[in-house]
Amino acid sequence: MKPKxxxxxxxxxxxxxxxxxxxxxxxxxxxxxxxxxxxxxxxDLVEEVVRQAGKDGVEVIxxxxxxxxxxxxVIASRTILPVIGVPIxxxxxxxxxxxxxxxxxxxxxxxxxxxxxxxGARNAGIFAAQIMARSDxxxxxxxxGYRKKLEAxxxxxxxxxxxxGK
Length: 166
Ligand code: RP5
Hints:
Elements: E1 5-9, H1 15-27, E2 32-36, H2 43-56, E3 60-66, H3 71-77, E4 83-88, H4 96-103, E5 112-113, H5 118-132, H6 137-164
Parallel strand pairs: 1-2, 1-3, 3-4, 4-5
This protein binds 5-O-phosphono-beta-D-ribofuranose (RP5).
5-O-phosphono-beta-D-ribofuranose binds next to strand 3.
C-alpha cells in the first residue's frame, strides 16, 4: 500500500520513541513509511526524502528530533504538506531545547508541534489521522470511536474510584 504519512527522525536513537507514532497510525489503518534523515548531518538526504514524499502522494509528514531540533522546520521549508513536529527528550536538557527549536517557527513556515516525548509521538499519529479525516469519512468514524473509547475508560475509572472511596 502507498504510504500516506512519512515519519522522519533525526537518528536511529529516536526510533523507539517514534515507533509510538507508527503504532497510532496503524490503529487507524493509515499506511506510513519511516525513515532517518538528519537536518545537520545529512541535509541533502532530508531534501531527497521530502521531494520523494511529494512524488509518492504522501499527505502528512511527521518529523521527530532531539536537541537543536531543526528537522521539522527544515522539512517544512521544502514542502507545503502539513508538517507535524515531535520534540524528543534525548538531550541533557530533556527536550526543552527540542521543544523550543521545533515550536518557535518564525512567521511564514509553520510546524504543528506536539508535546515533548512519548505523548507527542502518539499524538502526532492521531493528529495526522485528524487532518486526513477531513476528506475520509471512514477515518472520521474511526476517530470518533476512539474518542468514545477514551471517555468510556475515564468513566470506568471514575466509577471504580467512587466505589472504593479513593
Ligand atoms: C538529534 O540528535 C536526533 O534527533 C537525536 O534525538 C539526537 C541524538 O542523536 P544521536 O547522537 O543519538 O544520533 O539529531
